[in-house]
Design a protein that fits this description.
Blueprint: E1 14-16, E2 25-27, E3 33-35, H1 57-67, E4 78-81, E5 85-91, H2 103-119, H3 122-139, H4 141-155, E6 158-165, E7 168-172, H5 185-196, H6 203-217, H7 219-238
Parallel strand pairs: 5-6
Antiparallel strand pairs: 1-2, 2-3, 4-5, 6-7
Helix pairs in contact: 5-6
Length: 242
Amino acid sequence: MLSGPSPVGGESGWARRPGLCGQWLVAAGGGEVIARGHLASNHNYMSTQKGEAPSPPEQIRGWLTGRLPDDWFEGAPEILIDREEITVIGHLPSPGTSATAGGGSAAQEKGAAAEGAGERPGAEAEAAAIGRGRRFREETRDARIEIAREAEHSFGRKVSWGVVCDNYKVMFTTLSSPVMTRLRQSERRVLDTLVDAGVARSRSDALAWCVRLVGEHEDSWLSDLREALRHVEQVRAEGPHA
């Protein structure tokens, strides 16, 4: 801040112009401007511009289908999308088979591996599937990070990954997001009962437990509901644009 001597006469000292963020310092007798401030503005912290509309799920699925390497998974991966996260779940070949092998020998190897997996005890089969999932995770780490960064930049969502091998699912880099809700007393008592019984550690944990329970027992109904919503989104995307 510029400062000068206090006024002692009609033409000495400096005068300040009010109403500015910063100051104009001029000679008290009407001399030239010494320093000039800037007009106050709230543009930097108050913006009336609306954010961009989220990308439709079909656009995200199409982008990932084209972006993912063809030799990562057997068949098309399952792509789950919500407001915060994109989850990619792909099927890996059974341990002992090659994902890139071709011809009849590949089919024979796959059949033999499937037969061997059926003969293995449950613990061994699960360990083999976990090992295959970890191997995929390490071998594709750099490429997955790059794809996730591109997707987050384009669609504003985090990307999580998972694999399925011999009917065992292994998830990694998943996102947990807080969800706020309001519950009436009868609903809160349900959560408190779960906490008091030791089923859950807290109300939030009990609520998550209830959501998982509904997901397990109403999977068919939820799948039909998601399919109906997907159809609505498709019809809406095909409609006239303003």
